[in-house]
Amino acid sequence: MSDSRSSSTSSSYYDSAVGPPQSNVVGSRSFTQGISTTAPRHWRDVFWLLIFIAHLIVIGFVLGVFGLNRFQQKDRLNIDKYTMGYLENKDGLTEDYWPLYAVAGGAGAFLGWTWLLLLGSRASQMMKFSVHLLTTYLAVISVLCFWVEQFFWGVAFAIGAALQFLYVISVIDRLPFTVLVLQRAVTMVWNLPEVTRVASISMLVMLIWLALWSFGAAGVVALSFGDGGRWWLLGVLSVSLFWTGAVLCNVVHVTVSGMVFLVLIHGGRDATSMPVKPLMNSLRYSVTTSFGSICYGSLFTAAIRTLRWKIRGLRSKIGSNECLLCCVDFLFHLVEFLVRWFNKYAYVQIAVYGKSFNHSAKDAWELFQSTGVEALIAYDCSGAVLLMGTILGGLIAGTCAAVWTRINHPDRVMMVGSTAMVMGMILVGLAMVVVESAVTSIYICYAEDPSLINRWDPAFFNQISEKLHQRLQHRSARAREVINHRIDNQVQEAV
């Protein structure tokens, strides 16, 4: 990174230096300390903010219409006359299915709050448990789906169990380092009780929206359009719920990242140099000037990040099959290009500097590549481990709803269970995101100025520095091996 770029990006949030800049032992970038709480922030990605708000209004109206149409009486709003003739209409009421979604919401909220309560004492055990249990849970659900003659879902969950098992096997050697990073992130979050309160409030906000969402979803299930029509409508509503949940998770992400970054910069939350009400300032930026960037990034980051993990795991297990390796390498480089523009580390840059999403993502990735920290991030699986816990929580919530549905409405088990799983994943994800925010902030601070991590935890600093050195050596050796292999091939072809 150039010095000019460093000074320009720091001016919005860190505009005054306190003492001489400290040298970055990883790269050549210097980092200035100090904070300005009065620096003006500009609204970013306003177009996506408006799109998200319009989407909420439209989806909220649709949910209300579908929920009310079958609430206490059939076809209250006379919707059936528009669908009669090409869709199947049967008897069914919203209140028949709404309590089933309430079970999923209650289970998801319970799991999320349990995670927050056990964050300080049992977090590492819970993360290890979720990694090893998820494969078994997927396999068991697959067997149950075959038992109730849901062959499509049985095959889908069986494939999911197989992929999960292969992924865990491919990264089993990385898990000790991943657990180390997660433990330090949990320690950081546990020492900031206001962070967990933000997560709890966000879960309450999400529950309010889920009350409306489940009301409309129950109305759609009650409409009985026929399998094609119902699944299509529920699919659209689920995509909307994913986006809404991702936006709320990333609001927490930006808020917590800003707080953690300040704690690391100032050497502790009780430092005299800490600004007044840092968490409230970070939250205010998240829901105002930076909200458009959050809405924009929430559309793409989760999908691209998951795809990147799967391709990395597949790439590491490919042998000498040149054709398959070529195809996977093409996908790998394509995803790497997308990661440059859509990555979770952008949210830390948004929290700190108030930049647009693409600008933040690009700067964060260039920072990691220029300092070599990208090799450490590629080795770390903390995001995947947290995602496994989120998926497991969603599966448990979906199973609770599916079991009750099986008792009362056996023909709606998979429909209610799959959509209830989405609700559970979002609620558990809101609890998990506080740890992920701490992890991303730690890596950003380490790339910006490693002395910040050294001051916070010298033992942890030595461990990640040693691991970074090992990964850079590994990459250099692998690059030399690839070059030598290509030279040998060219020599053989010439001969």
From TrEMBL:
Q: Where in the cell is it found?
A: Cell membrane; Membrane
Enumerate the Pfam families for this protein.
Answer: Choline_transpo (PF04515)
- Low complexity biased stretches: 1-16
Listed PANTHER family: CHOLINE TRANSPORTER-LIKE (SLC FAMILY 44), PROTEIN PNS1
Q: What is this protein called?
A: Choline transporter-like protein
Coarse class of the primary localization is membrane
What does the sequence similarity comment in the record state about its family? Answer: Belongs to the CTL (choline transporter-like) family.
Record membrane topology: Multi-pass membrane protein
Annotated membrane-spanning segments are 46-68, 98-119, 131-149, 155-182, 203-225, 231-264, 285-304, 384-404
Q: Which GO terms describe its cellular component?
A: plasma membrane
